[in-house]
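Re: beginner question about structure tokens

> Can someone show what the tokenized structure looks like for a real chain? I only ever see the sequence side.

Sure, here's an example I had lying around. Input first:
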Amino acid sequence: MQKKNIIKIAIITVLILLVPLVAMQFSDQVQWGAWDFIFMGALLFLTGLAYVHFVQKGSTKAHRFSIGILVLSAFIFIWVNLSVNVPLLWDGLFILLWGGAILLLRRAILSR
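And the corresponding structure tokens:
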């Protein structure tokens, strides 16, 4: 992975984290602590790294799109489960959908 990709991901992560930081200055409804920023920064940065890493392996737009959907769904799954207690039924359905996406992605990558 190129160094400029890592720098771009870091810059985008910081820009996204500025949203709750600015919101905290104007509203009492947003209350993030240091650990919230650290964890979300790590989650965003690692998600970006995973996307760039796996997109480089995809040869077609369909592969890149499916990789993007998979990485985005993993990010949302982790974020929602850590921020809000989601009922077990929803977790089970989401895990099944995510598992299906992984199988489709695996099949798409192996068919290259």
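Each token stands for a local structural state, so reading them left to right follows the chain. The chain has two domains: 1-41, 57-112.
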